[in-house]
Every structure is written in C-alpha cells, then in structure tokens.
Amino acid sequence: MKVLVVNAGSSSIKYQVFNMEDESVLAKGLVDRVGIPGTTLEHKPIGKDEVIIKKDLPDHTAGMKLVLEVLTNSEYGVIKNMDEISAVGHRVVHGGESFAESVVIDDKVKKVIRDCFDIAPLHNPPNLMGIEACQELMPNVPHVAVFDTAFHQTMKPENYLYALPYDAYEKFKVRRYGFHGTSHFYVAHRAAEMLGKAYEDCKIITCHLGNGGSMAAIKDGQVIDTTMGFTPLEGLVMGTRSGDIDPAIVWFLMDKLGMNTSEANNYFNKKSGMLGLSGVSNDLRDVLEAANSGNERAKIALQVYYNKVKGYIGNYIAKLNGCDCIIFTAGVGENGYDVREAICSDMDYLGIKMDVEKNKVRGKEVDVSAADSKVRIFVVPTNEELVIARDTKRLAN
C-alpha cells in the first residue's frame, strides 16, 4: 500500500510518498511560491538525483497536478501511475473541538475545517485548498485529515479554559487548543519505547522547539496541558512570536503605536519573539552566534528563551506529580545541543541531570541523561509525516 502525504500552505505544497509495507519513503518534495511568479518544485526521489522544475503555477490544483506528473515520470518518478496511490493523508492545523482523532474527509469534515477559518486564518484555508485540489485530481481514493489540535483534546476544562466570562467559550469557543499535535504524539510514543514502559503508564514532557515552539505534559496516555492556546501565539518565546505576555500590553501598544487589529496581530506574531528581543534574527542559530560574539541583546534574548522553557518544565512536573522523561524535538530541539544544555542546567533539584558529552549530537535519537539523573532526557527527531501516513493507512483500510 502506498500513501501520499500532503501538507498545503498558503503558497506551498509539501509532499511525501510512503510504501506502508515497510514505512519507507519513496519520494519527498516541495512546491514553493504557488500562485506567485517564480514557482519552483523540488522533487527528491529516494535513490535518484534531485529534480528542480521552475514553472509558474496559478493555484494549488495546478501545483498538485505537477506533483502527480513528477511522481509518475518515467525517469525520476517513483510510481508507474496514480492507481498505485491507495490513499492521501492531509495535515490540517485546526479541527476545533470536533475531532479528537484523524478522520476520513467528507463534506461534514470540510465544513468543520471551513468553520475554523476564523481561528486559524493562516493555516486552515490553504489546508482546505490542498484537500480540494487532491480530491479533484484523485476522486476515487480515500482522503484523510490529520489535525494538529486532535492530540490535545484530552485536556480537561481546568486546563483548557481561560478565566474569561464563560460565554466567550460557549458562544465563540475561546479556549486552549494546542498545536504540533502530530509531533508531540510521535515523540511521546517513541519515548515510551525508549523507557521500556507502556505509553499509558508514563509521565512525559515533550518540547517541540523550532521557529515555532510548544510543550506538552502527558500523563497516562493523555495530554493534560500544553503551552500553545487559542492560537499558536501563546506559550514559549518563538522565532517571531511573543509567547506569554500581559494581555494589557496589546491594547497599550495599539494605542501608543496607532495600530489596528491586523497590525497588532502582525506585531505580536511576526515582529516579536527572538527577532524582536535580539534585533538580530528569528533564527536561534544567528542569535547564538551573535551572543557568542558579545551582543548583549542576543545574550538577554537567549536567557528569556531558556527561562520560559525551564518555567514550563517546572510547571508540568508539578502537574504530572513527577516525570519519567523530557523529550527535545524539532529543528532547535533536535540540533541545538547548546540550547538543550542551557535549558537543563541547574535543574538537578528536580532530578534533571544531563550528560554534556552525550548531548553533543545533532539530529539523532539518543538518551543524553547523566547516569544519576532521575528524569531521563531524550532527543527524538520528529516524524509528523509518518504519523499522518499511519493514520491514513489505518482509516483507509
């Protein structure tokens, strides 16, 4: 059985083809600048040379049509024809309260995705465009939606409600949803295997640290809390997102800077975080380099970043009443060994001790705990596409 996994952004389409007999990747690729002059497709068939095609594409349907042409190309394709694709899995960011697991897409599912446009305006519209483009080109195979929010739907009201008038929740569904769910799901299950314990018996803290970042506290196989909230703006300090702030700052700066709501949204989502604090970059590698060169703002920005993660680790250990392991994943979590070291330093009172030498690895699955650490510290490269492929196979069957 072969599964096509699609992740459609506003102007991009990421894809992978899996052979689900052994879960191997046959090809992966990216169509960039869809609907914008200068569209490029980068196609990477496993075991063959990378192919780059430059061709302007007006919309996602044209983008998916080109992807299918590339996949079936006699020279650099990986399948003979589209009949080899048994199902298509789609990453969808927001499923609201409607979905606690992945689901086969029908008109009702598409309506829920559309109903979430207001609370995920940057992600759900292109996700739906990708679904409809694929359905148009592949109408006879099942299409499955895998939601970033679904994994966090086990949270209880005391952890997902905000202290607002209750009708904000009842009328507008203002609550914490959480994101990066497929990543948290994958690494938490891998960690349970590394611990040699049943997933349902573990107390786990997952740290998905990339340009966007979130953490989750998982107990007895259920998410009890997570850092991202109603939107991905809440929680950790991120590349360009502020994370947790006093909400009064929003209208204070709107008044002082004369911003409207759209401009304020851009200010806190696109101009803040590490970029705003350091004045250097949204990329943590650049901020680290600047700090090492003596840039004081970069040094302070890093400390703010580390302190926020440390604070949530303490918060979650309290809520879990202990912790079996802490997992680092995503771009920064998997590769930034200096970031992991800084976060885990001076936490031995909580039983967290890192082996600094073991920790000096990038992008590998490894236990970096010190021998006497009560809490295990794991680095686990995430694999969201594999989670989507597995769910798609299960539901298609």
Q: What is the chain-wise order of helices and strands?
A: EEEEEHEEHHEHHHEEEHHHHHEHHEEH
Can you say what the CATH homologous superfamily of the largest domain is? Answer: ATPase, nucleotide binding domain
Strand segment tally: 14
CATH domain class name of the largest domain = Alpha Beta
CATH topology of the largest domain: Nucleotidyltransferase, domain 5
Beta strand %: 15-25%
Tell the overall outline.
Answer: globular
**Spatial strand arrangement across the major sheet:** 5-4-3-2-1-6-8-7
- Number of separate domains: 2
Mind describing the biggest β-sheet?
A: 8 strands, mixed
Low-confidence stretches: none
Q: In angstroms, what is the radius of gyration?
A: 21 Å
What's the architecture of the largest domain, going by CATH? 2-Layer Sandwich
In terms of structural class, how would the helical and strand content be classed?
A: alpha/beta
Number of helices: 14
Straight-line N-to-C gap: 10 Å
Helix content: 25-40%
Overview of this protein structure:
With 397 residues, the protein is of the alpha/beta class. It has 2 domains: 2-147, Nucleotidyltransferase, domain 5, CATH 3.30.420.40; 198-379, Nucleotidyltransferase, domain 5 (2-Layer Sandwich), CATH 3.30.420. Helix content is 37%, strand content 20%. It has 14 helices and 14 strands. The chain has helices spanning 60-71, 107-115, 124-137, 157-160, 167-172, 181-195, 248-257, 261-270, 273-278, 284-292, 296-320, 330-335, 337-344, 384-396, and strands spanning 2-8, 12-19, 24-32, 40-45, 51-54, 85-92, 103-104, 143-147, 203-209, 213-219, 222-226, 325-329, 366-367, 376-379. The chain has an 8-stranded mixed beta sheet with strand order 5-4-3-2-1-6-8-7, sandwiched between helices. A hairpin with a 7-residue loop joins strand 3 and strand 4 (40-45). Helix 10 crosses helix 11 (296-320). The relative contact order is 0.11. The mean pLDDT is 94.
